Amino acid sequence: METPLKVLLNRCWSSNFSTILIILFGVLWMYYLYKCRMRGLTKKLESFNSIPTVPLIGNLNILSGTKKERAIKWYKLVTEHETPLVFWLLHKPIFILGRSQDIQVVLNRTLERDLLGMFEMVFGDSITGLQGEKWRKHRRIVTSAFSPNMLQEYLKIFNKYSFLLTNDLKKFADNDIAINTWKHVNHTNSLSITQNMTGHKLERGDRSITEFTDAFNKSLEIETSRFTCPVLLPKLIYKLYLLISGKIEIFKTMHRFPRQIVKERLQEYEKKLQENEQRKETDNSKTLIDSLLNSHIADAEFTEKHVRAEIASMIILGNDSTSTITNFVLLMMAMYPNIQERVYEEIKTVLGNSDREVEIEDIRKFVYLERCIKETLRKFTFLP
């Protein structure tokens, strides 16, 4: 005869109770491991300021709300707390730096940047997200395209598109209506950066570059949204989400433009190398894509995929950074007409009353303009 205890146990295990019990045990075990990890990390980081956390999610609750609300929250974090400040993304500690000397220390050291791996759908295998020896190798290849000789070549293209931008903005000079300069600056910069990085000439109004920059902005917004949705943090779940929602097409659109450019340039480059085997040693007027393709042909480990990633990354980041800086400088000039007048007088002193192009020797003569740009960067530090 079965005892009452045995009957109870049989009923429990034959029902859904066993499933619930196993799940509950698993959750409690994960929470225990989480607490152990957090206890160890918290002890190591106890000398830093931190924000009160919510169990399991850390400080993710702060990232809720609209873009504007999140921006205000970030601003309050930096202004109301002494930095470095520890921000917990689930169980990962992230340091928020607010002082320039702290940022300088971090940027001068080669650190692991695993968090940037979350943006791999945007930047791929470029120096933006690589680490260690791979990062150093890619950096050597990329920096070889920014020699003094090449900067002089780039300046010619900058001059060309600067005149186009100036003519665009002249149309609004006599109006008292406020305008959004971003679309004018951003479009002109995208053409300039693309030609400098790839040698690929684009006409104004070319849809390929517009589609590329629009897709980048949308893709970056999608990638950033992962920070506010813990469910999307695992890579597999995130990729399934992109596939099911159809948002994977945005990333395909973004990568289509650099893929086409690299394909065309690679065919041209291989043809020229066959015609002149010494070209890669004697040609000192290479663009970035030439340096990348040269490394690709010489080193099998530096694949065509790496070339595409570096080109896309440089066009994206180069355009975004220069457009943002230019717009902030224009804003500050509009806010301070007396400073704008001094800058104008300095430009006239250096260039005279002619419309001649700026030469490399002229740049160091724009002392006051340089100060204005640096002061703008100090006030509106948008990217380290």
Q: Report the portion of residues in β strands.
A: under 5%
| Secondary-structure arrangement, i.e. CATH architecture of the largest domain | Orthogonal Bundle
Radius of gyration: 27 Å
Name of the CATH first level of the largest domain: Mainly Alpha
Strand order of the largest sheet: 1-2-3
- CATH homologous group name of the largest domain: Cytochrome P450
Number of helices: 17
End-to-end span in angstroms?
A: 77 Å
- Helix amount: 55-70%
Number of strands: 3
Mean pLDDT: 79
Largest sheet features: 3 strands, mixed
Question: What attributes does this structure have?
Answer:
mainly alpha; 3 strands; 384 residues; single chain
Strand and helix layout:
Layout: H1 4-14, H2 17-44, E1 49-50, H3 67-80, E2 85-89, E3 92-96, H4 100-107, H5 120-123, H6 132-143, H7 148-170, H8 182-198, H9 207-225, H10 235-245, H11 248-275, H12 279-282, H13 288-298, H14 304-335, H15 337-351, H16 360-363, H17 367-379
Parallel strand pairs: 1-2
Antiparallel strand pairs: 2-3
Helix pairs in contact: 7-8, 8-14, 9-11, 11-14, 13-14, 14-15, 14-17, 15-17
Can you offer a commentary on this structure?
The protein has 384 residues and is mostly helical. The protein has three domains: 72 residues, no CATH class; 191 residues, Cytochrome P450 (Cytochrome p450, Orthogonal Bundle); 49 residues, no CATH class. The chain contains 17 helices and three strands. It has a three-stranded mixed sheet, with no helix packed on it. Strand 1, helix 3 and strand 2 form a beta-alpha-beta unit. The chain is globular, with a radius of gyration of 27 Å.
